[in-house]
């Protein structure tokens, strides 16, 4: 009997410890079934990529330090990876969902991502990272909330509103790929979607009948947090809400100095949070607009997304012309000055980018400097390609991180040049050799006529400067060394440069790429390899038990791994259920 009592008390303690662990860092579980569905966002039926039958996909809504578990089942007819844009994957590039770190999920397979949203808050999104699939959908919002004990730097909003904007083609991603493979341009998009829906018929000449449009209902007098993501292919969009101010509050995980805008340019891959107060008289509904920027607006008029903001006491439908976009066709500095005005709120509480405890990033010694220059597409070996520093990146059959793990030779070269090459462009798998705990300065030089946005996985970067012309050493004199915004996706204007600083404290192999899908597909990317010489689990987590294998390591892939990939959620819940049942039995023994 004494042994039974000891065993019962032991089980009770185990259950208490388990519940404390869950309370410390809770788990959030999601099941994603990624498949094709038929939708008509611009009035004509077409194939789109849905998550759980939804286009856009469901919102992931968690809190700082949560452990997020997403079981992804691939029901497409091609390989799939899901990428969590802006989620830093601290110590775990294994979960990043790009070809440099992960083997793709084959059709009819499923794979479970598990990662912690460590020390992050803010507005992000997820999307499929292969084969230009984002051009067909598969994207959704990813929200990370502050813990209750950490105050936010504004009054708690009445509600959250997610708005996903992006240019859209009636051709699906496979047709767009074929055009690029044949050396052709994608051409002007067919429209702009707001939350997967086409434009409200504000103009019967430009917008045909029968298009389903987005309507967002709000209560008068209330303030909402409006999270806006540009998930499009390649078009910068100006976002505005008729007669309403947009009080900028956050950008990709960093609280901003709060400033009012009547409209804001949101570039491909970027995310913002606005506080919008519903302070109008509701005599009618109001337009929500996302229109193309840095194009010939007279020919791109139909590339405009229009939704409806509907007050609960609205007295009629929206009518009349749309609120005007910035009138700066001949003033290329307007948008850049707007971007420069976005500054980091250094006094706000909450998670911050490293270096932790030090916000004087301008006084930290730079250890490495890279000037990454892109140009107009070039021809290499008879194929149209895009480049960085004269190199068009080729994704190897074996992911870079797997090759390092298993010491597979010849997969990539650790020789990406610090400055643009002077010789002819070339195809290479060339990677930047980052210094662990170094402080890197990256100058993004856009010598193309099109707007570019760049994204770095694994980090938030400090945006310290931007200007037109060629960057020089003297350009550092213009840097913002105190409150430059920290974010993961930055714009680089045509014929201009943007400078960023990043603390390389996150071990792994991290993708740096253009977010313009056509240029990314054609090779405008590379990776930064960050290795701790001590190789300790404190700075990088071990390879996941359910890792997929491909390329030179294909022989390691076992058939049973397909089913075991889904075991995390089942194991967790079954173990907890078993422990609870045993604890109940133990309680009855003690009584």
TrEMBL record:
Per the record, what is one GO cellular component?
side of membrane
Where would I find the Plastocyanin-like domain in this sequence? Answer: 34-147, 160-313, 398-534
Among InterPro entries, the record links this protein to: Cu-oxidase-like_N, Cu-oxidase_2nd, Cu-oxidase_C, Cu-oxidase_fam, Cupredoxin
Q: Which domain of life is it from?
A: Eukaryota
How is this protein situated with respect to the membrane?
Lipid-anchor; GPI-anchor
Identify one Pfam family in the record.
Cu-oxidase_3
GO MF entries = copper ion binding; oxidoreductase activity
**Signal sequence range:** 1-23
Q: Where in the cell is it found?
A: Cell membrane
- Keywords tagged on the record: Cell membrane, Copper, Glycoprotein, GPI-anchor, Lipoprotein, Membrane, Metal-binding, Signal
Q: Which cofactor does it need?
A: Cu cation
Family stated for the protein in its record: Belongs to the multicopper oxidase family.
Per its record, how is this protein called by name?
Answer: Monocopper oxidase-like protein sku5
Name the source organism: Turnera subulata
Q: What is the lineage of its organism?
A: Eukaryota, Viridiplantae, Streptophyta, Embryophyta, Tracheophyta
